[in-house]
Design goal:
CATH topology: Tetracycline Repressor, domain 2
Radius of gyration: 19 Å
Structural class: mainly alpha
CATH class: Mainly Alpha
Distance between the termini: 61 Å
Number of helices: 15
Helix content: over 70%
Strand content: under 5%
């Protein structure tokens, strides 16, 4: 495409730009295909819910479900990023970290971004219809939470709460995909995931705090400022309390709690090390939440493999 606008780099891992066609680079950047941490954080609650349901009956989660959740998380996180970029394009143009994204920099139009979002959503729908009807309806209900999230930073200092509500819906979906219903354990797991998101996204938001203060965008990072660390202790402690309660309610093998203790120790290490005044430190701590989440998943998986307790 000789007349295509030049592609500027706003990429955590530009390797993606070397393996996709040039015309697709702006779309890959909208989808954040080069930044897998986002889909990991969307995927892990799905895997938690699946592993919790399986462990409650003394088994491992179906591999087919784990793979479907993986595909769904990648494409739906990409669709969500496209939607967020469309809604936030004026704000992104005023924030140093995001001003070179494809929409605010003019690489592609909002209309093309919207078409890309629809295509991704249709792929996600193909994944979703592989599950039972209850799960399909439950997952579709999450779209309302996804739709309102980008607007919350304009009206409340707690947009991270709404991100948590949307991002952790998979904890219930993972459970219902096996059981065809909901009960107390997945609801407790869901609440734990929301608290977890409040923690990691508050850390993430500190990267943009100076710009957010200038343009009036609200966040927990701005709300807490230099008092963030005690809030992080509270968020992560609440997260693990609810996840442990979910394990108890599901009657899991005690190894689950030993695994949660390891995951909690990892989270505590992150809180102790993060410097909220350093963007690299915040980004590293944010990304390390993948390991925290994987440790939780490993704990639930071990509980299922060792029996129903």
């Amino acid at each position: 495409m000789k007349n295509a606008p030049p592609v500027t780099v706003d990429s955590a891992h530009p390797w993606i730009e070397r393996i996709v066609p040039g015309w697709f680079v702006p779309y890959s950047r909208i989808a954040r295909f080069d930044r897998p941490i986002g889909w990991w954080l969307l995927l892990l609650p799905c895997w938690w819910g699946s592993a919790l349901a399986a462990a409650a009956s003394g088994s491992a989660p179906p591999l087919s479900h784990l793979v479907l959740f993986l595909i769904g998380a990648i494409v739906m996180r990409a669709a969500g990023c496209a939607f967020n970029d469309i809604v936030d394009r004026d704000i992104d143009a005023r924030v140093e970290r995001t001003r070179l994204r494809p929409l605010p920099s003019g690489q592609i139009s909002p209309t093309r971004a919207a078409i890309f979002m629809v295509v991704l959503s249709l792929i996600g729908l193909l994944v979703l219809v592989q599950f039972n009807l209850f799960t399909i309806a439950l997952a579709m209900a999450s779209l309302a939470t996804v739709a309102i999230y980008p607007f919350m930073k304009r009206v409340t200092y707690w947009p991270q709460l709404f991100l948590g509500i949307a991002f952790n819906w998979g904890a219930m979906v993972g459970w219902s995909a096996q059981t065809g219903s909901l009960s107390l354990p997945p609801l407790l797991l869901y609440l734990g995931g929301i608290a977890w998101t409040l923690g990691y996204d508050t850390i993430y938001g500190h990267q943009d705090r100076p710009d957010d203060e200038l343009i009036g965008v609200k966040s927990t990072s701005r709300r807490f400022g230099m008092t963030t660390r005690p809030w992080l202790w509270g968020f992560y402690a609440t997260a693990f309390a609810f996840i442990a309660a979910a394990c108890l309610a599901a009657g899991l093998h005690p190894v689950a709690h030993a695994g949660l203790a390891l995951a909690g120790a990892h989270a505590a290490w992150l809180i102790l090390r993060v410097d909220v005044n350093s963007s690299p430190s915040c980004l590293a701590a944010f990304r390390a939440n993948r390991e925290t989440g994987l440790l939780v998943f490993a704990a639930l998986l071990a509980a299922g493999l060792l029996g129903d307790g």
